[in-house]
Amino acid sequence: MVIRGRFAGRGPGGRPRTEPAAPADPAAARDALLGDVDWFALPEGAVRSRFAAPSGSLAAVSMGEPGNPPVVLVPGAMGSKEDFSLVLPELAAAGYFAFSFDLAGQYESTGAGPEHLRPPRQRFDFDLFTDDLTAVLTACGPAHVVGYSFAGIVAQLTLLKRPDLFRSITLLGCPPQGGQSFRGVSWIGWAAPLVGDRISADLIVWGVKRNFIRASPGRMALVMHRFTLTRKDSIRDMVGLMRHAPDLRPALRATPVPKLVAVGEHDVWPLQLHRSFADSIGASFASYSSGHSPSEQSPYEFTRDLLRLFGSAS
Predict the structure, then answer these.
(1) Rounded Cα–Cα distance for residues 151 and 87 (Å)
(2) Assign residue 14 a region: left if phi > 0, alpha if psi is -120 to 50, beta otherwise?
(3) pLDDT of 49-79, one tens digit each?
(4) Taking the alpha carbons of 48, 45, 72, 6 in that order, is the dihedral positive or negative?
(5) Which residues contact 243 (CB under 8 A, 6 or more apart)?
(6) Is the sign of the CA dihedral 127, 129, 132, 135 positive or negative?
(7) Which of 53, 51, 274, 282 is nearest to 168 (CA)?
(8) Which of 209, 213, 248, 307 has the smallest number of CB atoms closer than 10 Å to its CB?
């Protein structure tokens, strides 16, 4: 159980263990001081690279010593590695090798896609994304994996295929339901079954561009720039995959790897759905006073809870 981002973990028998919030939380205080960040500027010491994945060349960024325990952070649909810019240096300072990459078809990985597979395919599908992630984890070694939003589904599928490559799994703002995952979205979920993949994707992009989530000017500058590079077919296919998401809860619960569900209190899905999802898979739960993007809006509290999870995995 977690109160306002206070990570408590689970007690004997998997029962939630409560823990009162500290009177003064240094991580929360740092988050409160965040201003309008320049999201184009990577943190000092970050290393840009390219990774040769099955779908093509993926743009990546890393921090920390490569020989340290690896943490692989995977952004979601319409996202990018920059979504973890404030988390990477915290993980590196704690003694980890932090690695993030743009998914195939997204931002600076726009050249990667199903046409590069053997044999070539027409659409972006779950196998493409899980095979790319498996290649990254094979190169890094068994890692702590963070899957953000759509990538949370990819991380779950990869874990069930290759549990030997995971030290822990964190699902950040991940869809908490299988099937038509958009049906639980606040306000507009009722309309999700009434439109197709392309219209759904167009509506989501329209909402993001009009900044209904009230992102800061610095954040919106990166968001709008990414749309100039990100492939429209990759967004369409990702939205389609989220409209037919597999229900993996029983299989996830059976895996012994430490699990964390982390979410903003003002996420697009109601908080109770995320809590129920965490309980159903035997995961610890953390929430923050942010929206769909705790890694951007509450990065220090989120990193604090990641480090506690990693410690429990040890």
Answers:
(1) 17
(2) left
(3) 999 999 999 999 999 999 999 999 999 999 9
(4) negative
(5) 180, 181, 182, 192, 197, 200
(6) negative
(7) 282
(8) 209
